[in-house]
Protein backbone atom coordinates (compact mmCIF):
# COMPACT_ATOMS: atom_id res chain seq x y z
CA UNK A 1 0.00 0.00 0.00
CA UNK A 2 1.33 3.47 -0.96
CA UNK A 3 1.07 5.94 1.96
CA UNK A 4 2.65 8.85 0.02
CA UNK A 5 0.24 11.83 0.00
CA UNK A 6 -1.26 12.64 -3.39
CA UNK A 7 0.42 15.70 -4.88
CA UNK A 8 -1.80 18.42 -6.38
CA UNK A 9 -2.04 18.60 -10.17
CA UNK A 10 0.50 20.61 -12.14
CA UNK A 11 -2.00 23.40 -12.82
CA UNK A 12 -2.98 23.64 -9.14
CA UNK A 13 0.69 23.81 -8.12
CA UNK A 14 1.35 26.51 -10.72
CA UNK A 15 -1.53 28.64 -9.47
CA UNK A 16 -0.80 28.43 -5.73
CA UNK A 17 2.89 29.12 -6.43
CA UNK A 18 2.07 32.26 -8.42
CA UNK A 19 -0.38 33.50 -5.77
CA UNK A 20 2.20 33.01 -3.03
CA UNK A 21 4.91 34.68 -5.11
CA UNK A 22 2.72 37.71 -5.79
CA UNK A 23 1.79 37.92 -2.09
CA UNK A 24 5.40 37.50 -1.00
CA UNK A 25 6.80 40.24 -3.20
CA UNK A 26 4.41 42.73 -1.61
CA UNK A 27 3.51 44.70 -4.73
CA UNK A 28 -0.16 45.02 -3.73
CA UNK A 29 -3.26 42.79 -3.50
CA UNK A 30 -3.29 39.69 -5.69
CA UNK A 31 -5.90 40.19 -8.41
CA UNK A 32 -7.33 38.08 -11.20
CA UNK A 33 -5.85 40.39 -13.83
CA UNK A 34 -2.43 40.28 -12.17
CA UNK A 35 -2.49 36.49 -12.11
CA UNK A 36 -3.66 36.34 -15.73
CA UNK A 37 -0.77 38.55 -16.82
CA UNK A 38 1.75 36.48 -14.88
CA UNK A 39 0.42 33.15 -16.19
CA UNK A 40 -0.25 34.41 -19.75
CA UNK A 41 -3.87 33.24 -19.65
CA UNK A 42 -7.27 34.95 -19.82
CA UNK A 43 -9.09 36.44 -16.84
CA UNK A 44 -11.87 33.91 -17.35
CA UNK A 45 -9.36 31.04 -17.11
CA UNK A 46 -8.08 32.42 -13.81
CA UNK A 47 -11.63 32.83 -12.47
CA UNK A 48 -12.45 29.24 -13.33
CA UNK A 49 -9.32 27.91 -11.63
CA UNK A 50 -9.94 30.05 -8.54
CA UNK A 51 -13.34 28.42 -8.14
CA UNK A 52 -11.63 25.02 -8.25
CA UNK A 53 -8.96 26.13 -5.77
CA UNK A 54 -11.69 27.46 -3.49
CA UNK A 55 -13.49 24.10 -3.61
CA UNK A 56 -10.19 22.43 -2.66
CA UNK A 57 -9.82 24.78 0.31
CA UNK A 58 -6.62 26.34 -1.06
CA UNK A 59 -7.71 29.95 -1.65
CA UNK A 60 -10.01 32.55 -0.18
CA UNK A 61 -11.54 34.67 -2.92
CA UNK A 62 -14.77 36.62 -3.16
CA UNK A 63 -16.08 38.05 -6.40
CA UNK A 64 -14.31 41.31 -7.31
CA UNK A 65 -12.07 40.89 -4.24
CA UNK A 66 -8.38 40.09 -3.90
CA UNK A 67 -7.05 36.53 -3.77
CA UNK A 68 -5.37 35.00 -0.72
CA UNK A 69 -4.08 31.54 0.04
CA UNK A 70 -5.53 29.59 2.94
CA UNK A 71 -3.24 27.79 5.38
CA UNK A 72 -3.47 24.65 3.23
CA UNK A 73 -2.85 26.67 0.09
CA UNK A 74 0.23 28.23 1.63
CA UNK A 75 1.59 24.78 2.57
CA UNK A 76 1.08 23.58 -1.01
CA UNK A 77 2.77 26.69 -2.42
CA UNK A 78 5.79 26.40 -0.11
CA UNK A 79 6.24 22.76 -1.07
CA UNK A 80 6.45 23.51 -4.79
CA UNK A 81 8.55 26.64 -4.20
CA UNK A 82 11.05 24.56 -2.21
CA UNK A 83 11.38 22.18 -5.14
CA UNK A 84 11.62 25.00 -7.68
CA UNK A 85 14.23 27.07 -5.86
CA UNK A 86 16.42 24.13 -4.87
CA UNK A 87 16.37 22.88 -8.45
CA UNK A 88 17.44 26.34 -9.67
CA UNK A 89 20.27 26.35 -7.13
CA UNK A 90 21.43 22.87 -8.16
CA UNK A 91 21.35 23.72 -11.86
CA UNK A 92 23.61 26.72 -11.27
CA UNK A 93 25.93 25.17 -8.66
CA UNK A 94 26.37 21.70 -10.12
CA UNK A 95 25.56 21.92 -13.83
CA UNK A 96 26.88 25.36 -14.74
CA UNK A 97 23.62 26.99 -15.80
CA UNK A 98 23.47 30.80 -15.76
CA UNK A 99 20.84 32.53 -13.63
CA UNK A 100 18.73 33.48 -16.66
CA UNK A 101 18.43 29.84 -17.83
CA UNK A 102 17.22 28.04 -14.73
CA UNK A 103 13.68 29.32 -14.18
CA UNK A 104 12.10 27.58 -17.18
CA UNK A 105 14.00 24.34 -16.50
CA UNK A 106 12.86 24.32 -12.87
CA UNK A 107 9.27 25.04 -13.95
CA UNK A 108 9.25 21.66 -15.69
CA UNK A 109 11.26 19.62 -13.19
CA UNK A 110 9.45 20.84 -10.05
CA UNK A 111 6.36 18.81 -10.95
CA UNK A 112 8.11 15.49 -11.51
CA UNK A 113 10.89 15.19 -8.92
CA UNK A 114 10.15 13.57 -5.56
CA UNK A 115 10.52 15.34 -2.21
CA UNK A 116 13.18 12.75 -1.33
CA UNK A 117 15.19 13.77 -4.39
CA UNK A 118 14.87 17.46 -3.51
CA UNK A 119 15.94 16.79 0.10
CA UNK A 120 19.04 15.03 -1.27
CA UNK A 121 19.79 18.11 -3.38
CA UNK A 122 19.42 20.33 -0.30
CA UNK A 123 21.81 18.13 1.67
CA UNK A 124 24.32 18.02 -1.20
CA UNK A 125 24.29 21.82 -1.46
CA UNK A 126 24.61 22.34 2.31
CA UNK A 127 20.97 23.34 2.91
CA UNK A 128 21.05 26.76 1.20
CA UNK A 129 18.53 29.36 2.41
CA UNK A 130 18.33 31.34 -0.86
CA UNK A 131 18.43 30.45 -4.55
CA UNK A 132 20.63 32.10 -7.24
CA UNK A 133 18.20 35.03 -7.49
CA UNK A 134 18.10 35.59 -3.72
CA UNK A 135 14.62 34.10 -3.31
CA UNK A 136 14.25 32.37 0.08
CA UNK A 137 14.12 28.57 -0.04
CA UNK A 138 11.42 27.16 2.27
CA UNK A 139 12.59 24.47 4.68
CA UNK A 140 11.16 20.96 4.49
CA UNK A 141 8.77 21.83 7.32
CA UNK A 142 7.50 24.97 5.60
CA UNK A 143 9.50 27.74 7.29
CA UNK A 144 10.85 30.73 5.37
CA UNK A 145 13.76 32.88 6.52
CA UNK A 146 12.69 36.50 6.06
CA UNK A 147 15.27 39.21 5.40
CA UNK A 148 14.54 42.95 5.63
CA UNK A 149 14.72 44.49 2.17
CA UNK A 150 13.22 47.24 0.01
CA UNK A 151 12.63 47.57 -3.69
CA UNK A 152 15.40 49.59 -5.30
CA UNK A 153 12.72 51.54 -7.19
CA UNK A 154 11.36 52.78 -3.84
CA UNK A 155 14.71 53.68 -2.23
CA UNK A 156 15.34 57.37 -1.59
CA UNK A 157 18.35 59.32 -2.81
CA UNK A 158 21.40 58.59 -0.69
CA UNK A 159 20.23 55.10 0.33
CA UNK A 160 22.90 52.42 -0.01
CA UNK A 161 22.43 48.68 0.33
CA UNK A 162 23.34 45.21 -0.82
CA UNK A 163 21.42 43.54 -3.64
CA UNK A 164 19.77 40.53 -1.99
CA UNK A 165 17.07 39.53 -4.45
CA UNK A 166 16.20 39.75 -8.14
CA UNK A 167 12.91 38.96 -9.86
CA UNK A 168 13.61 35.85 -11.93
CA UNK A 169 10.55 35.80 -14.20
CA UNK A 170 12.14 37.65 -17.16
CA UNK A 171 15.29 36.02 -18.60
CA UNK A 172 15.96 39.05 -20.82
CA UNK A 173 16.05 41.30 -17.74
CA UNK A 174 18.44 38.92 -15.96
CA UNK A 175 20.75 38.94 -18.97
CA UNK A 176 20.60 42.74 -19.07
CA UNK A 177 21.53 43.00 -15.38
CA UNK A 178 24.41 40.58 -15.93
CA UNK A 179 25.61 42.66 -18.89
CA UNK A 180 25.72 45.85 -16.79
CA UNK A 181 27.29 43.92 -13.90
CA UNK A 182 24.52 44.13 -11.31
CA UNK A 183 23.96 40.99 -9.26
CA UNK A 184 23.41 39.43 -5.86
CA UNK A 185 25.82 40.68 -3.21
CA UNK A 186 26.77 43.90 -4.96
CA UNK A 187 26.52 47.26 -3.21
CA UNK A 188 24.22 49.86 -4.78
CA UNK A 189 23.80 53.53 -3.85
CA UNK A 190 20.96 55.67 -5.19
CA UNK A 191 22.59 58.90 -6.32
CA UNK A 192 19.63 60.56 -8.01
CA UNK A 193 16.00 59.77 -8.81
CA UNK A 194 14.89 60.95 -12.25
CA UNK A 195 11.11 60.43 -12.16
CA UNK A 196 10.35 62.25 -15.43
CA UNK A 197 13.02 60.22 -17.20
CA UNK A 198 11.75 57.03 -15.55
CA UNK A 199 15.14 56.07 -14.21
CA UNK A 200 17.60 56.14 -11.33
CA UNK A 201 21.23 57.16 -11.35
CA UNK A 202 23.11 54.70 -9.17
CA UNK A 203 26.62 53.70 -8.16
CA UNK A 204 27.41 49.97 -8.16
CA UNK A 205 30.32 48.35 -6.32
CA UNK A 206 31.36 44.71 -6.02
CA UNK A 207 31.71 45.16 -2.24
CA UNK A 208 31.78 47.82 0.49
CA UNK A 209 35.35 48.83 -0.41
CA UNK A 210 35.18 48.30 -4.15
CA UNK A 211 35.48 50.88 -6.88
CA UNK A 212 32.16 52.43 -7.85
CA UNK A 213 30.67 52.29 -11.36
CA UNK A 214 28.01 54.80 -12.41
CA UNK A 215 24.89 53.33 -13.97
CA UNK A 216 21.56 54.66 -15.21
CA UNK A 217 18.85 52.13 -14.38
CA UNK A 218 15.30 52.19 -15.73
CA UNK A 219 12.40 51.78 -13.31
CA UNK A 220 11.41 48.43 -14.82
CA UNK A 221 14.80 47.04 -13.81
CA UNK A 222 14.76 48.89 -10.46
CA UNK A 223 11.38 47.30 -9.67
CA UNK A 224 12.99 43.86 -10.07
CA UNK A 225 15.76 44.43 -7.51
CA UNK A 226 15.58 44.28 -3.71
CA UNK A 227 18.31 45.71 -1.50
CA UNK A 228 19.08 45.31 2.18
CA UNK A 229 19.87 48.90 3.25
CA UNK A 230 23.14 49.42 5.07
CA UNK A 231 22.80 50.30 8.75
CA UNK A 232 23.32 53.95 9.59
TrEMBL record:
It holds the Pfam family FeoA. It is found in: Cytoplasm. Coiled coil: none annotated. Belongs to the DtxR/MntR family. This is Manganese transport regulator. Transmembrane segments: none annotated. It comes from the Bacteria. Homodimer. Keywords: Activator, Cytoplasm, DNA-binding, Manganese, Repressor, Transcription, Transcription regulation. Residues 1-70 form the HTH dtxR-type domain. SUPFAM superfamilies: Iron-dependent repressor protein, dimerization domain (SSF47979), Winged helix' DNA-binding domain (SSF46785).
Amino acid sequence: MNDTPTRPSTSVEDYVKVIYDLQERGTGPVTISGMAERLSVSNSSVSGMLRKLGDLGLVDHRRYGSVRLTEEGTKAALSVLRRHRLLETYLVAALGYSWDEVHDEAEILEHVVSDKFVDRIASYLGDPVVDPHGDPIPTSDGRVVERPSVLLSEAEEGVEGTVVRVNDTDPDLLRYLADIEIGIGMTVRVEERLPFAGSLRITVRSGPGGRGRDRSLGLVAAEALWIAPAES
